[in-house]
Backbone:
């Protein structure tokens, strides 16, 4: 058996085509979704990511408000800018690119964002709503994982899911999404992590494996039962002298070996990554519709 590849780039493009149509219809009603992107400092990876998000907005017709601040920007100045965007009716979503410089308290910045514009899904109000199954902005990466599964016709209900990783960004929210008594959920979820004893014994029982721990070869072929679905969220740099930049990107899964046992698998790059930005667009459009309905 060789696994079918879950192509995150293709799925993201399909969804963005749907978003273009939806945004065009909203504009006919004088509703223009707007996303404010705030970047503090000049981290190259963050700059590249923010530029990609702005390009995504242009692609689907979302108004993008670009705010690039010096690394020396104070926490007070950043929160004042967030408050300005909270009160701007043209802005439906506010994204503060993380990580922030060390002198800025990340939690206080997230708390400053109006929950109704928290399109990253990080504000504790949205996290709490997600926990109890209320409508909320869902964090983009785990929400993207769910869409990859459902659009690949993977049955989540009743499945044994093992999530490796307990971060606030992926592991914890994804576990909460999948155990809800909802469509595209109702799974039996086990959350493992770097302190789990005998990780392989848990993973071997899984119908769906989600690796999100940030460690190369965390999931090897001997840990995967035949026909399992494998979603690799990890992104790790591995030295590679054959590459111009001196490294290549790999996930948390031993891809070449595991794809011979899995039924479906995501590559790295090109799997989950494109879906993260796509779900940000989704949340921004949903926020615009909610604001217009008031």
Residues:
């Amino acid at each position: 058996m060789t696994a079918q590849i879950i192509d995150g780039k293709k799925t993201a493009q399909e969804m963005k085509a749907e978003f273009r149509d939806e945004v065009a219809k909203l504009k006919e009603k004088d509703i223009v979704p707007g996303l404010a992107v705030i970047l503090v400092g000049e981290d190259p990876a963050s700059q590249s990511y923010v530029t990609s998000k702005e390009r995504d907005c242009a692609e689907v017709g979302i108004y993008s408000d670009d705010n690039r601040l010096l690394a020396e920007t104070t926490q007070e100045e950043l929160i004042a800018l967030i408050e300005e965007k909270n009160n701007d009716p043209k802005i439906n979503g506010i994204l503060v690119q993380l990580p922030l410089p060390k002198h800025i308290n990340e939690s206080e910045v997230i708390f400053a964002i109006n929950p109704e514009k928290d399109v990253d899904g990080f504000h504790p109000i949205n996290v709490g709503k997600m926990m109890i199954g209320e409508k909320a902005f869902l964090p983009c990466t785990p929400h993207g994982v769910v869409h990859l599964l459902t659009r690949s016709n993977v049955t989540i209900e009743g499945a044994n899911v093992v999530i490796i990783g307990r971060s606030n960004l992926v592991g914890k929210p994804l576990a909460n999404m999948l155990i809800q008594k909802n469509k595209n959920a109702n799974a039996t979820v086990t959350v493992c992590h770097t302190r789990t004893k005998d990780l392989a014994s848990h993973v071997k029982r899984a119908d769906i494996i989600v690796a999100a721990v940030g460690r190369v070869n965390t999931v090897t072929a001997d840990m995967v039962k035949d026909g399992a679905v494998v979603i690799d969220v990890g992104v790790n740099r591995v030295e590679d002298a054959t590459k111009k930049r001196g490294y290549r990107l790999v996930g948390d899964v031993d891809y070449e070996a595991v794809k011979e046992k899995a039924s479906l698998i995501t590559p790295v790059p090109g799997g989950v990554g494109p879906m993260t930005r796509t779900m940000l667009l989704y949340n921004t459009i949903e926020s615009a519709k909610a604001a217009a309905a008031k």
